[in-house]
């Protein structure tokens, strides 16, 4: 099929490469000319495992092209996929301006039958508004006779950064919200070759499903963080609790890692947006308000813990390991790690950070006074303590005797419990995790 993708970010690019791999012809469109120029030359503008190789493969086959000119590629399109960003507004709602701008642009040029597929995460009712916006724009451009040829489907994306391509090719489910059997068939055809569970439902249900999924995951994280805080106060170990409850198939082991809370480009904005959607529909979603509050408090508690152990942070040298919102990506959007770094900096700490992939993206978002090292060990040179904020696997492989020798004080604050099982006390470290007592080092 001929697929035009509008918005070539994490979701748009992954989808573009994925649909091309499935045998479709894909044109990726973006308003960011620099990004498109880089992609055209085969440079992926973010770190994602396997993405560059997969892009080169499809470019060599000629199955994917990049452009800023929507009008140039729209003529052939059988499907137009919307993958523009839907960030939070200052009041927590989804900002839909990129989406409606794209919809207007589509309407300006569209002159044939097409299915619009929305992958962006959008509040309930948005897909119908997108369709109406495209049709209004067609009316303005004198093509009102063709508006009935445009149909829409909500196909929310569930990929995870760090395993984006794999998640695209092997999704646990594909949710399609549509009103017409032909639309369901088109969406199935563009995914031909993917084995998965299909959930065919109404447009509103598909829209809300995406928010429900992210809100559920965020709830698990805030829940285990609450348990961690009780564990700390009672001498229990949250890691063992998480393991034990995770063995219960009704609960499952995932998203039960206590720490500094969730971040990233999706959870914070989607949880806030769902809270807003509930409020706008006259419903007070109390649980979600608590999930957000717990997540924010988790950062406060972690910084407070560092202050309690080290005292005044003014001029204290702290090594920071990890800036990305999670390992496997250089994405720092709404990263809890960055938030902690900003707070420590504001308290006067002298910070030296290392992240294996996210330094470039993090530098843009952090105060200039923070320095960066090119290895984890170098970051710890002369440090009064080490603060671990992202769970990069390589942090577990450093030489801990060397690390200790390079630090002034062998103190580790681990915001991800990433090193909790390494018995660091045997190397002479004082280890502080989240929900594991300082004495509890196993
Ligand atoms: N990143 C994820 O892991 C993820 C996972 C699932 C769902 N989502 C959802 O997918 C959507 C996209 O997320 P993302 O992380 O890929 O965003 P992103 O910010 O990485 O990419 C969005 C792209 O859209 C482009 N854009 C904006 N307006 C445009 C327009 N009018 N025409 C053409 N291009 C335009 C931007 O320049 C940008 O390159 C969001 O709704 C997000 O919530 C993201």
**Assembly state (oligomeric):** single chain
CATH topology call of the largest domain: Rossmann fold
Any idea what the radius of gyration is? Answer: 24 Å
Number of separate structural domains = 2
CATH superfamily of the largest domain: NAD(P)-binding Rossmann-like Domain
Q: Uncertain segments of ≥5 residues (pLDDT<50)?
A: none
SSE diagram, text form:
Blueprint: E1 2-6, H1 10-21, E2 25-29, H2 33-40, H3 51-61, E3 64-67, H4 70-74, E4 79-82, H5 97-109, E5 114-118, H6 126-140, E6 150-154, H7 164-169, E7 173-177, H8 181-190, E8 197-201, H9 203-234, H10 238-246, H11 267-280, H12 286-310, E9 317-321, H13 336-346, E10 350-354, H14 359-363, E11 371-372, H15 376-379, E12 385-388, H16 400-406, E13 411-414, E14 430-432
Parallel strand pairs: 1-2, 1-4, 2-3, 4-5, 5-6, 7-8, 9-10, 9-12, 10-11, 12-13, 13-14
Helix pairs in contact: 1-3, 5-6, 9-11, 9-12, 11-12, 12-13
Bound molecules: nicotinamide-adenine-dinucleotide (NAD).
Output the keywords.
single chain, alpha/beta, Rossmann fold, 2 domains, 6-stranded parallel beta sheet, binds nicotinamide-adenine-dinucleotide
Can you walk through the features of this model?
This protein is of the alpha/beta class. The protein has two domains: 2-201, 3-Layer(aba) Sandwich (Rossmann fold); 236-432, Rossmann fold, CATH 3.40.50.720. The protein contains 16 helices and 14 strands. The chain has helices at 10-21, 33-40, 51-61, 70-74, 97-109, 126-140, 164-169, 181-190, 203-234, 238-246, 267-280, 286-310, 336-346, 359-363, 376-379, 400-406, and strands spanning 2-6, 25-29, 64-67, 79-82, 114-118, 150-154, 173-177, 197-201, 317-321, 350-354, 371-372, 385-388, 411-414, 430-432. The protein has a six-stranded parallel β-sheet, sandwiched between helices. Helix 16 links the parallel strand 12 and strand 13 (411-414). The longest helix is centred in the middle third of the chain and has 32 residues, at 203-234. The mean pLDDT is 97. The structure holds nicotinamide-adenine-dinucleotide. The site of nicotinamide-adenine-dinucleotide has 27 residues, from helix 1 and helix 5. Nicotinamide-adenine-dinucleotide (NAD) binds next to helix 1 and helix 5.
């Amino acid at each position: 099929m001929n697929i035009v993708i509008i918005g070539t970010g994490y979701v748009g690019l992954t989808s573009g490469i994925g649909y091309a791999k499935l045998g479709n012809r894909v044109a990726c469109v973006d308003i960011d000319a620099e990004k498109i120029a880089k992609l055209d030359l085969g440079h992926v503008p973010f770190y994602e495992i396997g993405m560059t190789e997969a892009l080169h493969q499809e470019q060599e086959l000629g199955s994917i092209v990049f452009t800023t000119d929507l009008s140039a590629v729209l003529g052939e399109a059988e499907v137009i996929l919307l993958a523009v960003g839907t960030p939070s507004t200052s009041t927590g709602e989804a900002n839909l301006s990129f989406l409606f701008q794209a919809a207007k642009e589509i309407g300006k040029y569209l002159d044939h039958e097409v299915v619009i597929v929305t992958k962006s995460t959008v509040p309930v009712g948005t897909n119908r508004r997108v369709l109406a916006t495209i049709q209004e724009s067609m009316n303005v451009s004198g093509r009102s006779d063709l508006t009935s040829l445009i149909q829409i489907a909500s196909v929310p994306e569930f990929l995870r950064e760090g395993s984006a391509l794999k998640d695209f090719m092997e999704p646990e489910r594909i949710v399609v919200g549509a009103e017409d059997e032909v639309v369901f068939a088109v969406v199935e055809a563009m995914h031909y070759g993917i084995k998965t569970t299909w959930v065919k439902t109404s447009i509103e249900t598909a829209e809300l499903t995406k928010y429900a999924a992210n809100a559920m995951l965020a709830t698990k994280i805030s829940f285990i963080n609450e348990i961690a805080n009780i564990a700390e106060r009672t001498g229990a170990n949250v890691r063992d609790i998480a393991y034990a409850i995770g063995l219960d198939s009704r609960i499952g082991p995932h998203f039960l890692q206590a720490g500094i809370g969730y971040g990233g480009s999706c959870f914070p904005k989607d949880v806030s947006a769902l809270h807003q959607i509930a409020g706008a529909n006259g419903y007070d979603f109390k649980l979600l308000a608590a999930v957000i509050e717990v997540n924010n408090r988790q950062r406060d508690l972690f910084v407070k813990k560092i202050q309690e152990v080290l005292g005044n942070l003014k001029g204290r040298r702290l090594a920071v390991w990890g800036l990305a919102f999670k390992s496997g990506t250089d994405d720092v959007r709404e990263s809890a790690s960055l938030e902690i770094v900003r707070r420590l900096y504001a308290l006067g700490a002298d910070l030296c950070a290392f992240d294996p992939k996210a330094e470039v993206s993090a530098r843009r978002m952090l105060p200039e006074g923070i320095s960066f090292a090119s290895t984890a060990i170098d970051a710890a040179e002369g440090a009064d303590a080490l603060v671990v904020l992202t769970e990069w696997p390589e942090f577990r492989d450093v030489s801990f005797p060397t690390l200790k020798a390079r630090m002034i004080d062998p103190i580790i604050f681990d915001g991800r419990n990433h090193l909790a099982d390494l018995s660091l006390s045997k190397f002479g470290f004082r280890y502080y995790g989240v929900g594991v007592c300082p004495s509890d080092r196993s």
